[in-house]
Write a structure and sequence with these properties.
The complex is a heterodimer of chains A (about 130) and B (about 100). Chain A is mainly α. Helix content of chain A is about 85%, strand content about 0%. Chain A has helices at about 1-50, 55-80, 80-85, 85-110, 125-130. Helix content of chain B is about 85%, strand content about 0%. Chain B is built from four helices and no strands. Chain B has helices at about 1-25, 30-55, 60-90, 100. In chain B, α1 (about 1-25) packs antiparallel against α2 (about 30-55). The N and C termini of chain B lie far apart (about 45 Å). The chains are: A mainly alpha (about 130), B mainly alpha (about 100).
Chain lengths: ~130, ~100
């Protein structure tokens, strides 16, 4: 009579562990997904709200990279290592390699051609730049 | 989980709308290229959300291809702009600001 009881206890513990890990992975996926989406939203907001070409390149190069990388990590946890494989890591490395390079190239082009910069006192730099 | 994915859809869609706003209103050409890069990254984020909703790893190649396409298009825009500004400066030889000729 002892063995079925212990087996029953083990199955109970195993199912509890499975539920706990499923909940843990769900919460982890939710945290990564929501923080990544918030960073992407903040990057878009910075592209609109910041006053200068250089500031917008800064918003593009940092916030967007972090947001898309967090969303890819969330995808990796959500669909499992066996299905996603190494391709998610390649995608994250690719994002980290390309997006800051593009932002730096744009701001380097703007710096070489002496685009108008935000001095801090005038509020209408972005509108004055189009009229010049 | 589903409602979180929908919240993320909403946030990424708002980011795409902000990028379209900057692309329409952007005073210089570099602003428009930055807005284009924003929209390309948001398209990659939409692909991530779709593959998260359907629970497949089938679209990871699409993610790689889209990010490579956005990066190479940005680099091509910048080189085109640089060459066009140089040729304009050679032809006109006037002290015109480059922001006008860029558009």
């Amino acid at each position: 009579m002892k063995k079925p009881v212990t087996n029953y206890r083990q199955t109970q513990e195993n199912s509890f562990a499975m539920d706990f890990f499923a909940l843990f992975f769900t919460v982890l996926t939710a945290i990564f997904l929501l923080s990544g989406a918030c960073f992407i939203f903040l990057g878009g907001l910075g592209v609109v709200r910041l006053p200068d070409v250089f500031c917008r390149g800064h918003a593009l190069g940092k916030a967007m990279t972090l947001g898309i990388s967090l969303m890819l990590i969330g995808l990796w946890i959500h669909i499992g290592i066996g299905e996603a494989g190494i391709k998610v890591i390649i995608a994250i490395m690719f994002q980290f390699a390309t997006i800051p390079v593009a932002a730096h190239l744009l701001t380097l082009h703007a710096y070489k051609n002496k685009y108008p910069r935000f001095s801090g006192k005038e509020n209408n730099t972005s509108t004055q730049a189009g009229q010049k | 989980m589903t409602i979180l994915i929908y919240i993320s859809y909403t946030l990424v869609s708002i980011a795409i709308l902000l990028g379209i706003y900057r692309m329409i209103l952007g005073p210089t050409a570099v602003d428009r290229i930055i807005a284009f890069d924003t929209i390309a990254i948001c398209a990659v984020a939409f692909t991530v959300l779709l593959s998260m909703q359907w629970r497949t790893g089938f679209f990871l190649e699409l993610i790689l291809i889209f990010s490579a396409l956005g990066f190479f298009t940005t680099v091509a825009f910048v080189f085109y702009l640089q060459r066009r500004l140089e040729t304009d400066a050679d032809e006109e030889t006037s002290n015109q600001l480059p922001t006008n000729s860029g558009e």
